[in-house]
Amino acid sequence: MLQTLFCIIPILLLNYNLDNIINIYNNLTNTYSEKTLFVYGSSVLQIGFFWSYCLIFYIFDSIQYFNKYKVQSKYSSISSSFNSIIKLVLFNQLITPFIAFLLFNFYSFPSIPDIYTIIIDIIMFIFIIEILFYYSHRLLHIPYLYKKIHSIHHKYTAPNALISLYAHPIEYIISNILPVMIGPLLCKSHIITIWIWILISLFNAMTVHSGYKIFFIPNSTKHDYHHKLFKCNFGVLNVLDYLHGTLK
Q: N or C: which end of the chain has fewer CB within 10 A?
C-alpha cells in the first residue's frame, strides 16, 4: 500500500489543478445529484477500473514469458471454475451500489479539497484500513467463519487479480467495502478524495493478489504467502502483523 501511495502522490502533485477539478465537479453536480455521484459514480468507477486492470493481468497470464515473474512458480489455475468466479465477482459488484446507498446516510459533502487535504486524508485512510482490515481478516480466520465464509476466497492458494473480489458477499461487505469506506466517512472527505482512494485501494488489492513480482508494481509476495500458508500476513501495511507476530 505504501509503495502504491508513493507512486500516486507525485502524480497528484503534478496533475491536480483545482480550477479544472472545480469545473468538472460543477458540471457533474449540474447533471447528477450528490447521492447519484456517491452511490452510482463510485460503483461505476470501481467496476470499470477492476475489469480494465484484470484485463492487463489476463494478458500477462496468457503469455508464457511472464510466468517466470510469478511469486509461486507452480500456481493453481482458475480456468476450470472461471465462470463461477466471474458470477460471484459480478454479484459482489452488483451489491456495491446498495451498500453505498446505505453509507450515503452517514455522508455529508464538504467543499472541494486542495491537494494537501487529499493527501492528508488518504494517509489517514491507510492507517484506518490497516486496523479495520487486519482485525476483520483475523476474525474471518476463526475456524467456524473460515469454513462458512472465508474459505471461498482461499480456494486458490496462488491468487490472481480476479480473485481479489472473489469472496463470500458477507466477507466482501465487512472486509472489502467497509474498511475502505469508513475512513472517508470518519474524515468527512470529499467525493473526489473518495474516488481517488477507491482507485488506490483497488489497485493495491488487485496488485497484491496478482501473483506477480515485477519491478514496476508493488511486491505481492507477502499476500501470496498468506494464500499459501493461511496464518500470516493478514494486514495491508503489515504493521499489525509485525506487532502481533503474524508477519512472514
A: C
